[in-house]
UniProtKB/TrEMBL annotation:
<protein>
    <submittedName>
        <fullName>Uncharacterized protein</fullName>
    </submittedName>
</protein>
<feature type="compositionally biased region" description="Low complexity">
    <location>
        <begin position="147"/>
        <end position="178"/>
    </location>
</feature>
<keyword id="KW-0732">Signal</keyword>
<feature type="region of interest" description="Disordered">
    <location>
        <begin position="138"/>
        <end position="178"/>
    </location>
</feature>
<feature type="signal peptide">
    <location>
        <begin position="1"/>
        <end position="20"/>
    </location>
</feature>
Length: 243
């Protein structure tokens, strides 16, 4: 007679792990009716300003800094946007636009069309659109809020004996020789163990080896952290077959 202990992670297959950074984006200015509608934002020297040609490319990090593709960061000092090795935090992507708290952004013509957060002489207030890299239709990247790293998973899960519900529970169906027991925690199936009917003395579900089918949520979290940034989902399964 053969018995099996199966660790089932159907729910984990639908889990979504928060990004460590936003999608990479280009920046264009938005100000309808002005000279700066759809202007490209780039870096000249270490100053963030309106440029001709290729603009900057960057991503908001989980600590709220804005990191550029060359490894430098956006720095805000005295209202001026420059670049440096240590970035200013507080950036986010909201409704498709780069934000920095409640700060406004201005294009300042007296400073080579530099982007600043303080009003300047003859300055034009603009919004900074976070444009998908290579987009030809002004499509924005998804919103991103720094510091919101979390793990969320679907509440549905399945195993050979059916679905599990939230909380710690056990349910199963029986046959002439075995009963399937499903252990659940926070809507995530941790283990499905086949136990034996009474009178079976060599049941593997009663042995120390059956414990290896129980895997903690912290183990799953650690595994998820090894994945590259971006939305990640994993479906893991482990099976122990004992004769």
């Amino acid at each position: 007679m053969k018995y099996s202990a199966v660790a089932s992670f159907a729910t984990l297959g639908l889990a979504t792990f928060a990004n460590a950074a936003s999608q990479n984006f280009d920046i264009i200015t938005i100000k309808s009716g002005s000279d700066f509608q759809y202007s490209t934002v780039g870096v000249n020297g270490d100053t963030v300003e309106i440029v001709q040609g290729n603009g900057l490319e960057g991503a908001v990090q989980d600590d709220g800094t804005l990191k550029l593709s060359d490894g430098s960061f956006i720095v805000i000092k005295d209202g001026k946007l420059t670049t440096g090795k240590k970035g200013t935090d507080g950036f986010a992507i909201y409704q498709g636009y780069v934000t920095h708290g409640d700060d406004p952004f201005y294009v300042c013509p007296n400073a080579a069309f530099a982007i600043e957060t303080t009003q300047c002489t003859n300055g034009t207030s603009v919004a900074l659109k976070a444009l998908k890299v290579g987009s030809t239709s002004a499509q924005s990247v998804p919103d991103f809020t720094p510091g919101s790293g979390s793990i969320s998973s679907s509440s549905s899960s399945s195993s050979s004996s059916g679905s599990s519900s939230s909380g710690s529970s056990s349910s199963g169906s029986s046959s002439s020789n075995s009963t399937v027991v499903t252990q659940s925690l926070e809507s995530t199936t941790l283990a499905t163990i086949t136990s034996c009917a009474s009178g079976v003395t060599d049941c593997p579900a009663n042995s120390a080896s059956s414990a290896s089918a129980s895997i903690s949520v912290s183990t799953l979290t650690g595994a998820a952290n090894l994945l590259n940034g971006g939305y990640a989902a994993a479906a893991l399964a482990a099976a122990l077959i004992l004769a």
